[in-house]
Amino acid sequence: MKNIIKKIKPLYFILNKIRHFKIEIIFTNIHYFICLVLKKPYFGKKYGANIQSKKEREILRRLVKQVQNLKENIKCLEIGSWAGCSAVTIAETIKKSGKGGMLYCIDVWRGTDENIKITKGKVSASAIFNLFKHNVKYSGVENYIIPIQMTSDEFAEKEKDTQFDFIYIDGDHKYTQAKKDFINYFNILEIGGIMCGDDLDYFSDQIDENLAKENREKDFVTDKEGRTYHAGVTLAVKDVWNNKVGMRHSIWSIQKTKDGWIPYNYSS
Ligand SMILES: C[S@@+](CC[C@H](N)C(=O)[O-])C[C@H]1O[C@@H](n2cnc3c(N)ncnc32)[C@H](O)[C@@H]1O
């Protein structure tokens, strides 16, 4: 009898896992389709539409409000919008303030390696762009967002003479592109404006820099302590900002000054 139980136990464990996994997939899909049919925004697990945490969204709201304290009708820019989670957060902040403003969302809507991993590469760019538009529309912020389907390089070149008050960078996290984006977009940030970016999981002095350098052109790396982080972002923050940035919940931020920049001070 003991032997039979011994044999059945792992089988039961595996079957249970499969059952939970399948049930989760079924519920995720039901939730998604209900939102589409009922015309509600969808920021659930499907397609990793819920990619931003509640705490990250709080930080974004706070940074946008900070810029709004300085002026009305702010011009905001987001590099990397995916299904619209952060874009809707920024646009809702603009809308609620009643002070006017606009958010330009720049994305190729192809996804980073991380997005492709979440979706297992089984989702087309048009499906994500459609979900983005759905979320924007049914969150009631359509009048505050202008989506622009192009690469960050193309937009930076096209708008090199424009100035923005708030810039959020959450596009390609690999070193070369992240560094390029930081530099290009700092050039079109207004003095007094705030620039911030996602996925600074650790500063360079908290990680093994050699491992990070070897993997800087990958979306993320896992070290021997089991920590997964975006090596490209960590190294670009070091090389461009000399680690002189504010950081909360993996969002780094700076404020442009006449002479350069200062780390955004969260306690102010
Ligand atoms: C991590 S997702 C953005 C998530 C989004 N900010 C949110 O919180 O919901 C990264 C996005 O950047 C876009 N992207 C990657 N490289 C890009 C590039 N060079 N130019 C424009 N968009 C890019 C991808 O298509 C993807 O949608």
From TrEMBL:
<dbReference type="InterPro" id="IPR029063">
    <property type="entry name" value="SAM-dependent_MTases_sf"/>
</dbReference>
<feature type="coiled-coil region">
    <location>
        <begin position="53"/>
        <end position="80"/>
    </location>
</feature>
<keyword id="KW-0175">Coiled coil</keyword>
<dbReference type="Pfam" id="PF13578">
    <property type="entry name" value="Methyltransf_24"/>
</dbReference>
<protein>
    <recommendedName>
        <fullName>Class I SAM-dependent methyltransferase</fullName>
    </recommendedName>
</protein>
